[in-house]
């Protein structure tokens, strides 16, 4: 069952990383050690991120972009530095980075602003998503379709959990106006060839968005390489704070788009007759922004880069491999998605056992996983299940965590059979 | 046996388990022992709202006592359903309506079940009491 030797620790000291996360040493249900394997839902935060937020409030808090005092200037500089840090993380320019509340708000922002820009011309055209999208990348486009009369098309998911690119080539056609797909599935852990899908969109003159909520921790994310018009993600899955997210929008595309919300900080002039707006990204950031969120996210990105992302990815790939092997050895267990994955997100079902029961009994043993539909109900339907159990790793996950997980799983199954 | 006596029995049963494994074994065994649910009533009308798993509860009344049939697709929840059935099944509407409201905490279950599950239990309990209320009013009018 345990196979510690396969986990490389030459360039990457997982125990040193782990020591930076205070929450990981706590216990649950009294004295049961916590084994946190719900990282695809949200990652824990290293001490430096937590410190950056308190430091901001202790030393630098003031409203940004609003005026001429020392603290205001300092807070504005920190906030704009954060934007530059995110931009460099994505291989983009600072004016291509919009801060949002998270991935969901990011997709809604793009769907609302872009559809307002193209307006009635969407009737008779289509918007393409995939069969493995999170509800956040389904519902905003359904709303656009309902409002404009556009058709929603869905790229098929194959039995092995990968996208059917041939089907994508068929349904992305001259009438396609927008293509919006997930980079890494939050349910299956599968990585999609978003570069290829964005090329298909570009070839027919359609705009493209990539939902990078899960991908930013698992893959190098260079916007020019992916070739998308928009890329969105959340801070909290990247070891940063909650309530902060990012939209990358290609500068020339953003320049033509109307505001999403109106208010302070996004205007150039306001009169009762007419208001004029600032350029992107300010045009899309109405109101006082989440300043400590942006600053905390920038700290998380700096921390992440210091880790040596490629060594970390190797560590997580070996965890993923180990998790697949352990789970496949369990009688009656089925993994949804590809047999092999480099991403530590594994969804599974066990014959005759309800995922909720597994969740309860693992929790009792201190093991935190997610059970349910993972906000991907159409994907659940595609695989003929109503819910799955999902375990997901992070940079601080150790082989001991996986030992505890499999031991707990065996005990749960024994009780439930 | 009165509702109070049944709760007293359950209290001593649950107090006797040394660890979580035994406690859940017992809950699971209770679930497996639950009478089979009539498939005719496995529909939205009899589904209890507010539970994470699917729970069905069908009431009928004869000679002044309410007979419940209940089921869940998750085993632990089914065990909790069975526990409620031991307390509330085959009772008169007034017995159910006058029963103590703090069953969950009296059994110490609030310390062992997460909020989601105690909320689910509360939803089931609420539905049982609603049916009892409806039957009690039907009888009066």
- Give the number of DSSP strands of chain A: 17
Q: Largest beta sheet of chain B, briefly?
A: 2 strands, antiparallel
Beta-strand content estimate of chain A: 15-25%
The percentage helix of chain B is 40-55%
Quaternary state, please?
heterodimer
Name the chain pair with the biggest interface and residue counts per chain: A-B, 14 and 15 residues
> How is the main sheet of chain A built?
7 strands, mixed
Report the count of strand segments of chain B. 2
Widest β-sheet, arrangement of strands of chain A: 4-10-9-8-7-5-6
Our estimate of the beta-strand percent of chain B is 5-15%
Average residue pLDDT of chain A = 94
Principal-axes geometry of chain B comes out as globular
Shape of chain A: globular
Which structural category fits the helices and strands of chain A?
Answer: alpha/beta
Beginning-to-end CA distance, first to last residue of chain A: 21 Å
Commentary on this structure:
The complex is a heterodimer of chains A (417) and B (141). Chain A has helices at 14-18, 47-60, 70-90, 103-118, 139-148, 165-171, 194-203, 223-226, 251-255, 291-306, 309-328, 355-364, 377-382, 399-416; strands spanning 27-28, 32-33, 35-36, 97-100, 126-130, 151-155, 176-182, 207-211, 230-234, 245-249, 267-270, 275-277, 333-336, 345-350, 367-368, 370-372, 388-392. Chain A has a 7-stranded mixed beta sheet, with helices on both faces. Chain A has 417 residues and is of the alpha/beta class. Chain A is built from 14 helices and 17 strands. Chain B is mainly alpha-helical. Chain B has helices at 3-15, 20-32, 75-88, 93-98, 103-106, 115-140; strands at residues 55-62, 65-72. In chain B, a hairpin with a 2-residue loop joins strand 1 and strand 2 (65-72). At the A-B interface, helix 12 and helix 14 of A face helix 2 and helix 3 of B.
